[in-house]
Amino acid sequence: MAPFLDTVKSFDAVEINDAGVNTAEFLEASEGLVRLFDLLGSTAFGVVQSDLKGNIEKVKARYLAAPTLSATLEQLVENEKGEKKRVATEGLLWLLRGLQFTCQALLFAQANTDAELTSAFSSSYEGTLKKFHNFVVKGIFSVALKACPYRKDFYAKLAADPAGGPSASQEKVSTELDKWLAALDKIVNKLQTFYETEGHNKGF
């Protein structure tokens, strides 16, 4: 029995030490989150997936180019500070925004067990990404949000074994999802505070 969350790296397993958030582990966990949108089963969310993937690649490229200076995300951003184009810094900032959007939507769904996903993702969008988007992008998201699957179908996919084995119980899924989301929320908040405190978000 291996439900979806057992097949991806949990944000709960991402190391955080005095130097910051482990870059390689964070990227692996973020790639797992991108796969979550496949379970939503709507091509409308392709724009979200594409954006997340693109920003992951920007951060990964910097990490691979200067691994000793990028062991943690904080170190990666600090070491790019003097460069004219801070591609990875901007990419990580937008990645965090996308992760926050996803995290807050699922936290809403977990806290409001009668709420459909359209409500959960719409509520999250209002409080996270919407303020950064222009009229055209807002329209794209409006279509995507209306295309969310039914809650019961999404949670059934979370419980299903991709290998075809028996599904996990909804209790197990909910417990693992709570742990996954709590860790993700902690990391996003930590890094967004770092950006704001150190002024790394200026210009973006």
From TrEMBL:
<dbReference type="Pfam" id="PF08718">
    <property type="entry name" value="GLTP"/>
</dbReference>
<dbReference type="GO" id="GO:1902387">
    <property type="term" value="F:ceramide 1-phosphate binding"/>
</dbReference>
<dbReference type="InterPro" id="IPR036497">
    <property type="entry name" value="GLTP_sf"/>
</dbReference>
<dbReference type="GO" id="GO:0005829">
    <property type="term" value="C:cytosol"/>
</dbReference>
<feature type="domain" description="Glycolipid transfer protein">
    <location>
        <begin position="21"/>
        <end position="159"/>
    </location>
</feature>
<dbReference type="GO" id="GO:0016020">
    <property type="term" value="C:membrane"/>
</dbReference>
<dbReference type="GO" id="GO:1902388">
    <property type="term" value="F:ceramide 1-phosphate transfer activity"/>
</dbReference>
<dbReference type="InterPro" id="IPR014830">
    <property type="entry name" value="Glycolipid_transfer_prot_dom"/>
</dbReference>
<keyword id="KW-0813">Transport</keyword>
<protein>
    <submittedName>
        <fullName>Het-c2 protein</fullName>
    </submittedName>
</protein>
